[in-house]
Write a structure and sequence with these properties.
The chain has about 290 residues and is an alpha+beta fold. It has helices at about 35-45, 60-65, 135-140, 145-155, 160-165, 220-235; strands spanning about 5, 10-15, 20-25, 50, 70-75, 80, 85-90, 115-125, 130-135, 155-160, 190, 195, 205, 210-215, 240-245, 250-255, 260, 270-280. Strands 1, 2, 3, 4, 5, 6, 7, 8, 16 and 18 form a 10-stranded mixed beta sheet that branches. The radius of gyration is 18 Å and the shape is globular.
Length: about 290
């Protein structure tokens, strides 16, 4: 589980979870002073995902906490929470077989300026299962050979929303109605394959199975083998952690530094989450 780090001045405790993520305790997200927020910013830059339990957030409080990190990206594809368009609903009903986010991905990589991060708050969780896995794309880059690192630094990749949210998306029948505005899924973006993270300064692999389609200047078939290798490498257990949700838990992950996967192992039960995504900044190549 890592060692405990006591931040005495703010009286919060940060527990590293391995290669990625840290659990934060002794903090109420409804009542954050500037000093505590500064401590959270430092922990976020270092660990890429912050986990909180026992929070009691109204939609307004959820929005208020998110806005202290940046402008909110109003999601065009997810069903919004009633009267709160800033919050996207991530829901699986008991009769549904498939879930949202059931494969490795990072949110909004198809945007020209990808999101800073996402704040997912647990409203209803199954009695067992429904965990989320996270992977560190910085730790994964660190463990590659120097030869492939040099080659990857020279590449750019294309990311797209079309095959996931667009009219060509092959969605299971029991997920019909969960997404909207398929005609707006026309986003295509090029990003460096290795970015310099704007907070930590680390080199980070920036490709993901959800939205990356191919390398710039390469065909899709030519790209498949290298992308498959990178995906397998990033998902290695030593680069990941697993978060177990409770009602009132919140996970805040950095979309520039991590992947996540919602484990679909709770058939017959309901899971309801509220997600807010915060706008980011242009990505810079590590070798810029």
């Amino acid at each position: 589980m890592g060692i405990w780090t006591r931040r005495e001045a703010m009286n919060i405790t940060v527990t590293p979870q391995g290669a990625v993520g840290a659990e934060v305790s002794n903090v109420d997200l409804n009542d954050l002073d500037d000093g505590t927020l500064s401590e959270l910013r430092s922990a976020y830059a270092q660990y890429s995902v912050l986990f909180f339990h026992g929070q009691k957030l109204t939609p307004a409080a959820h929005i208020n906490f998110a806005e202290r990190w940046g402008a909110i990206n109003v999601n065009r594809f997810f069903t919004p929470v009633e009267n709160h368009p800033q919050i996207a609903e991530v829901r699986k009903e008991p009769e549904q077989k498939f879930n949202i986010g059931g494969g490795w991905h990072t949110d909004h990589s198809y945007d020209q300026i990808p999101a800073l991060g996402s704040l997912l708050y647990a409203k209803e969780v199954p009695l067992m299962g429904g965990d989320t896995l996270f992977a560190s794309c910085a730790a994964a880059f660190d463990t590659l050979s120097e030869g492939i690192k040099d080659m990857l630094r020279s590449l750019r990749a294309v990311h797209s929303s079309r095959h996931v949210f667009g009219k060509v998306a092959a969605l299971p029948d029991d997920m019909a109605g969960l997404f909207a505005n398929a005609d707006q899924a026309t986003q295509d973006a090029e990003h460096p394959v290795v970015i310099r993270h704007p907070l930590s300064g680390r080199e980070v692999l920036y490709v993901n199975p959800g939205f990356t389609t191919h390398f710039v200047g390469w065909t899709v078939p030519e790209s498949e083998a290298l992308l498959a290798y990178l995906y397998q490498h990033i998902a290695r257990p030593e680069h990941t952690c697993r978060f177990h949700w409770q009602p009132g838990s919140l996970a805040f992950w950095d979309n520039r530094a991590t992947w996540h996967l919602a484990v679909n192992d709770y058939h017959g039960e309901r899971r309801l989450m509220h997600r807010i995504t915060v706008e980011g900044e242009p990505l810079t190549a590590a070798n810029a």
